[in-house]
Specification:
Length: 173
């Protein structure tokens, strides 16, 4: 499997893209260093050290390192864990509402927020009820004539691609 590493606007974050999906569609897992339970793959990544949080999506891994961590030593170790990783553990994983919220927050940090920030915008997650996620667009996105398109084309499409429990994204002002 080919894995490409992408630098992001946040110097503490790297995205690792897979040439082939490693999980089924809609499967995701998010873990923070302080979490008590996580998959064997996540546990191995945290054992590397200097890792703060990780989001695994079918086509990428989002990794946030601690301040002072060194990507030149962390990246090869993360790559090794991904190449040797057993992704079968995820086949029987069922997310709770708290897990889904954490996944949405991490997905927003990994994919949506950097996209919006390039144009001076931002997004705030308000609440999740019955499959409806309420968000607020901030910065240059707030009041922009293209905000509805951004919400549908960038935010809703991305979240629905990875989180099957989301039926609708609703914008609040």
């Amino acid at each position: 499997m080919l894995i490409e590493i992408e630098e992001t606007l946040n110097p503490n974050v790297r995205n690792f893209y897979f040439s082939n999906p490693v999980l089924a569609q809609y499967q995701t897992e998010y873990a923070r260093k302080k979490d008590k339970k996580s998959s064997p793959l996540m546990e191995n990544i945290f054992k590397i050290g200097q890792i703060e949080e990780v989001l695994l999506l079918p086509d990428m891994l989002f990794v946030k390192k601690e301040e002072g961590g060194d990507w030149s030593s962390l990246s090869p170790q993360i790559m090794a864990e991904l190449v040797d990783g057993d992704f079968n553990w995820f086949k029987n994983f069922e997310a709770s509402k708290d897990d889904i919220l954490k996944q949405i927050e991490a997905l927003t940090e990994a994919k949506i927020r950097p996209y919006l920030q390039r144009d001076g915008g931002n997004i705030e997650l308000i609440k999740l009820e019955n499959g409806v996620l309420s968000v607020k667009l901030n910065g240059r996105c707030h009041g922009c004539p293209h905000a509805t398109q951004t919400l549908q084309n960038a935010v809703e499409t991305t979240i629905k691609k990875y989180i099957k429990n989301i039926k609708q994204i609703k914008r609040e002002d």
